[in-house]
């Protein structure tokens, strides 16, 4: 009976430790994303063109292509988005296009991917 208890208890403890480690790592990643400063681009100073840049905050990587016409952001294309579960965050580009600013609200539940996408757009516009 004692051996069966050990066989059941050890895997449960290991699973518990893995869950705890995942929670700690996840909260650290989200905290770093929340600390990212996203600056609005001075669109009047940006010439017409297509600008490509990336931003990486592990485990998320985003590469964007931003098109500027007549000092307005006319198109944003996400060329690469390594995100795990952050696919929904890609809709943030619609907010940027509609408002013509980078200081838009993050997509709920997609903070890290939202911030990384915004930072990639900022990098493209600060080229």
TrEMBL record:
Q: Is Membrane a UniProt keyword of this protein?
A: yes
The FMN-binding domain covers: 59-126
Instruction: Classify the source by domain of life.
Output: Bacteria
What the entry lists under InterPro entries is as follows: FMN-bd
Keyword annotations of the record = Membrane, Transmembrane, Transmembrane helix
Instruction: List membrane-spanning regions.
Output: 6-25
Q: Which Pfam families does the entry mention?
A: FMN_bind
Protein name (database record): FMN-binding protein
